[in-house]
Amino acid sequence: MDCIFCKIANKELGTELVYESGSVVAFHDINPQAPVHILIIPKRHLADLGEISPEDESLLYEIGVAVKELAAKYQLKDGYRLVTNCGPAAGQTVQHLHFHLLGGRELGWPPG
Ligand code: 5GP
Ligand code: ZN
User: Which residues lie with the beta carbon below 6 Å from any ligand 1 atom?
Assistant: First the structure.
């Protein structure tokens, strides 16, 4: 399978990882939409949240820990947003589960 985020997680592309734990890595989005725009992904390939299974119970906890640690590392004390786009109507363009961590500016609501 030719998945760019699997390659990043496997360290095949030399993308700087800003966070890594047992099952998770995070890196800067190549096209940032905010001063801080980090993608948090499972190392294991899942297309989107629709593919999670009971074996991923600890994975979702690990992603929560990653969010907490990255929010502290990047000083997002005024707030941040965590987004995952699932499917074409939501604008998902990479079919490997990822969470956008956005911060460093005022974020409008509702999102587009
Ligand atoms: P989606 O639209 O699927 O929710 O988000 C995919 C995100 O991945 C986009 O924000 C896009 O800029 C980012 N992206 C796509 N390819 C690469 C890449 O090769 N490296 C990095 N760092 N980000 C990427
Ligand atoms: Zn993948």
Answer: 4, 15, 27-31, 39, 85, 91-94
